[in-house]
């Protein structure tokens, strides 16, 4: 293994797919990935896993899969189970006030597993062992030119870690729209948005599509949504408000999905480092 590691955070969504393919086609000047790492929450739509399989057959750098566990099972665990938190919507009883739970899923199920894979699998370090001074790590993320806030937050976080982070799409001034147009001519299928099936960051259009095109994913989303309101589960521990994954604060299976709101916060796509 080289002392200079160049690693792509692969979410298998639109932007990180563009980076993987552009590097494969020598379209990123001076950028070669030693590997790409996909952190699997085990709760992605089937389209994401099918696309990931396709991507791995294109002859590019190795795609390493890692996981911190099945996030939905952790959310619905009871007793002293591992605490996990998604940005669910909250509603106090007998009020119309809507809030939102702090998001911890990105760190726990995306960022930390990738960092552990780098430290333990690629570098062979032991717990709490420092990275050798002669080793340089550069992580590449698919934040695009229309995401300056996310890029700035990520850069600050990784500088604290002692390794480098780059955003080639930002450097090329490519927006998400540019990425979608690039993929239209490069990939024989529509590249799905990367997010758990029950991620609250979905528009009604996305919820409808999940319900119509991925019955298994829809059923899982309904199961998790209903389960979060059951007494004693980890996700509602210590809360006096009900949790919902749809912004209307109604059970997902009862939510009104006919209204279009446009794209709802696509910048929270799980591209291996969302929410940084």
Explain the overall architecture.
- The protein has 276 residues and is α/β, with parallel strands linked by helices.
- The chain has a single domain, classed as Rossmann fold.
- The protein is 34% helix and 12% strand.
- It has nine helices and eight strands.
- The strands form two sheets. Strands 3-2-1-6-7 form a five-stranded parallel sheet. Strands 5-4-8 form a three-stranded antiparallel sheet, with no helix packed on it.
- β4 and β5 form a beta hairpin.
- The longest helix is centred in the middle third of the chain and has 18 residues, at 105-122.
- The chain is globular, with a radius of gyration of 19 Å.
- The chain starts with a strand and ends in a 32-residue tail after the last strand.
Summary, kept brief:
By secondary structure, this protein is α/β, with parallel strands linked by helices. The chain is about 35% helix and about 10% strand.
Please describe the structure with a list of short key phrases separated by commas or semicolons.
Rossmann fold; 12% strand; 9 helices; five-stranded parallel β-sheet; 276 residues; globular; alpha/beta
């Amino acid at each position: 293994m080289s002392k200079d590691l160049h690693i792509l955070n692969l979410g298998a969504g639109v932007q990180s797919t563009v980076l993987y393919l552009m590097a494969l086609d020598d379209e990123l000047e001076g950028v070669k990935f030693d590997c790409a790492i996909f952190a699997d929450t085990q709760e992605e739509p089937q389209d994401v896993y099918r696309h990931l399989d396709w991507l791995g057959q294109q002859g590019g750098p190795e795609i390493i899969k890692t996981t911190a566990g099945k996030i939905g099972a952790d959310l619905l665990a009871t007793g002293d189970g591992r605490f996990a938190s998604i940005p669910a919507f909250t509603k106090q009883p007998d009020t119309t006030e809507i809030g939102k739970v702090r998001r911890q899923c990105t760190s726990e199920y995306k960022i930390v597993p990738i960092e552990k894979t780098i430290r333990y699998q690629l570098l062979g370090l032991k717990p709490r062992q420092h990275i050798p001074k002669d080793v340089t790590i550069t992580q590449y993320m698919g934040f695009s030119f229309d995401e300056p806030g996310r890029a700035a937050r990520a850069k600050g976080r990784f500088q604290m870690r002692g390794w480098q982070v780059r955003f080639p799409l930002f450097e090329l001034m490519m927006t998400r729209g540019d990425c979608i147009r690039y993929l239209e001519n490069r990939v024989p299928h529509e590249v799905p948005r990367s997010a758990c099936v029950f991620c609250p960051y979905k528009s009604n259009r996305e919820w409808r599509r999940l319900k119509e095109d991925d019955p298994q994913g829809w059923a899982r989303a309904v199961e998790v949504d209903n389960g979060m309101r059951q007494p004693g589960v980890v996700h509602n521990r210590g809360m006096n408000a009900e949790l919902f994954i749809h912004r209307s604060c109604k059970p997902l299976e009862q939510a009104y999905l006919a209204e279009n709101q446009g794209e709802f916060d696509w910048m929270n796509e799980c591209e291996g480092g969302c929410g940084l």
